[in-house]
Specification:
Shape: globular
Mean pLDDT: 96
Number of helices: 9
Number of strands: 8
Order of helices and strands: EHEHEHEHEHEHEHEHH
Radius of gyration: 17 Å
CATH architecture: Alpha-Beta Barrel
Distance between the termini: 22 Å
Bound molecules: zinc ion
CATH superfamily: Metal-dependent hydrolases
Low-confidence stretches: none
Helix content: 40-55%
Strand order of the largest sheet: 1-2-3-4-5-6-7-8
Largest sheet: 8 strands, parallel
């Protein structure tokens, strides 16, 4: 069984002591792809992220200014992306809008927009962080025009909200939240299988029975199990489909 964790933060302090074992445990259950999301405003994290990809074939990178850091955006950041090996930088993200952060909404929108434009210039998909702002995110995508691919990570909206993004070709990603959120289960049930990605968002959002603890890529299995249950699909098949989806969104042109 081959699995893909489409969203993790392996350079978080929570992994400082045992990252090697964490990656090893994931590998042992078949996680052959991990997208490690980097914060583009954090030079140290970028450097460490690039090092990781030299050490592990399974680790890929995405980079972006998280909405939480939207006010740190500057035009020089785009240049930083040119130091990434082409076969390792698979997306711009996570980027988006989150009104629960103490960052002015207009600043978040502007930083989001600038990065969509970068993604278009680079021909890369985007990874969207969106909470309570599906309308705003949708409008910006529309204004920036659609021939753009991407995923809404740890989707937290309703089916109605999901449908609009599916209609414009986006993928929907489910994390450990799927193991306990009725809303997420409903959306996963209705989302076509060929548009679903899975992720851990490690070290956050651990699935049941690890809820509240540090999350790690090997726990993706719990989300695969839950998705299999919802879709009435064997676990191996769920793994195969979600990994194929990961490859077609992020690794297609390699
Ligand atoms: Zn994240």
């Amino acid at each position: 069984m081959v699995l893909a964790d489409s969203h993790a933060h392996l350079l978080d302090d929570f992994f400082e002591k045992d990252l090697e074992e964490v990656v090893e445990r994931a590998k042992n259950i078949g996680v052959e792809y991990i997208n490690n999301c980097l914060e583009l405003t954090d030079n140290e994290e970028i450097e460490e992220g690039l090092e990781l990809t030299k050490k592990y074939d399974s680790i890929f990178l995405s980079a972006g200014v998280h909405p939480f850091n939207a006010k740190d955006w500057n035009n020089g950041l785009e240049e930083l992306l040119s130091i990434f090996p082409k076969d390792k930088l698979i997306a711009i993200g996570e980027i988006g809008i989150d009104p629960t952060y103490d960052v002015h909404l207009e600043i978040q929108k502007e930083t989001f927009r600038k990065q969509i434009q970068i993604a278009k210039r680079k021909g890369l998909p985007i990874i969207i962080h969106c909470r309570y702002s599906f309308e705003e995110v949708y409008q910006i995508l529309k204004e920036e025009s659609f021939p753009l691919q991407g995923v809404l990570h740890t989707f937290s909206g309703t089916w109605k909200e999901a449908e609009r993004f599916l209609d414009i070709g986006f993928y929907i990603s489910f994390s450990g939240v799927l193991t306990y959120s009725k809303k997420a289960k409903e959306v996963a049930l209705k989302t076509p299988f060929d548009r679903i990605l899975i992720e851990t968002d490690s070290p956050y959002l651990a699935p049941i029975p690890y809820k509240g603890q540090r999350n790690e890529p090997s726990y993706i299995l719990r989300t695969v199990e839950e998705l299999s249950r919802l879709k009435g699909s064997p676990i191996e098949k769920t793994a195969e489909i979600t990994t194929e989806n990961f490859i077609s969104l992020f690794l297609k042109e390699q």
